[in-house]
């Protein structure tokens, strides 16, 4: 939903609630301009954990007309809530059906001796091919779990030999 729609819904809800009570409010009614709307993208600003690697090893397992599957591994560093050496493996796949691309992503990682985590997701954007995945920069496609922490994840373009930057928000 766009921000303007959120504000319209909030104004409508406030107007509906104002007419529901016959009692006098103890405080003046809230005006629509005084309501602070939190933009969905604000959640991206708080980074809990960052995984970095200088090189991803990606291997195409299957690449047919309109579909593919690739596995990947990397070693790197975790920085943030949990610091240390990271090892990870995972896969992405995609299928084009009726002009729309459906993709899935799955990754498991270990911050050695400290924590295990996952990043998973699926979507309909055109961000997966046989040789590349991403970038995923908004907080709707990938979710992470790291110990008791969970939330959304973003990643740069992942491809064989590329640098990696994944952030958990």
Structure, described:
- This protein is mainly β and 169 residues long.
- The protein folds into two domains: 3-37, no CATH class; 49-168, Beta Barrel (AOC barrel-like), CATH 2.40.350.
- It is built from one helix and eleven strands.
- An eight-stranded antiparallel beta barrel has the order 1-3-4-5-6-8-9-11. Strands 7-10 form a two-stranded antiparallel sheet.
- The radius of gyration is 21 Å and the shape is globular.
Shape: globular
Number of strands: 11
CATH architectural arrangement of the largest domain: Beta Barrel
Radius of gyration: 21 Å
Secondary-structure element pattern, one letter each: HEEEEEEEEEEE
Derived from helix and strand composition plus strand pairing, the structural class reads mainly beta
Q: How many structural domains?
A: 2
Instruction: Please indicate the percent range of residues in DSSP E strands (runs of 2 or more).
Output: over 45%
Low-confidence stretches: 1-44
CATH class of the largest domain: Mainly Beta
CATH topological fold name of the largest domain: AOC barrel-like
Q: Numbering strands along the chain, what is their spatial order in the largest sheet? A: 1-3-4-5-6-8-9-11
The N- and C-terminal alpha carbons lie at a distance of 20 Å
What's a concise summary of this model?
The chain is mainly beta. It has one helix spanning 3-18; strands at residues 49-53, 56-64, 67-80, 84-97, 100-111, 115-123, 132-133, 142-146, 149-155, 158-159, 164-168.
